[in-house]
Design goal:
The protein contains 4 helices and 6 strands. By secondary structure, it is of the alpha+beta class.
Length: about 100
């Protein structure tokens, strides 16, 4: 995603290259699929795992473009350059969670 973002931004006029993205990754169970009613059916993902990933994305402006949780770090194989950000208090959570930044920044 980061590589594609850089390529996309390079293709834009200079005045439009100022935007950026944040990515939050959390590992766990979630409900994913077509949810809703017959009148309004949408493909979506819900659950605590999704909420934490979303909250990580929202703090990426402060801590780094790509953030992940301790659970994701534990699930990764070696080879990902992660650096500890520390414990971060996420909106809507009573306890802070251990957060890591992708080391390419």
């Amino acid at each position: 995603m980061v590589e594609n973002l850089q390529q996309f931004k390079a293709s834009l006029p200079a005045a439009l290259r100022q935007f950026d993205i944040g990515i939050g990754i959390h590992t766990g169970e979630a409900v994913v699929g077509m949810l809703g009613t017959e009148q309004r059916l949408e493909y979506t993902a819900i659950g605590d795992t999704v909420n934490i990933a979303s909250r990580l994305e929202s703090v990426s402006k402060t801590y780094g473009r790509v953030l992940c949780s301790e659970q994701t770090k534990q699930a990764l194989s070696a080879g990902y350059p992660l650096s500890a950000v520390g414990e971060v208090q996420l909106k809507g959570r009573q306890a802070g969670i251990q957060v890591y930044r992708l080391g390419e920044e």
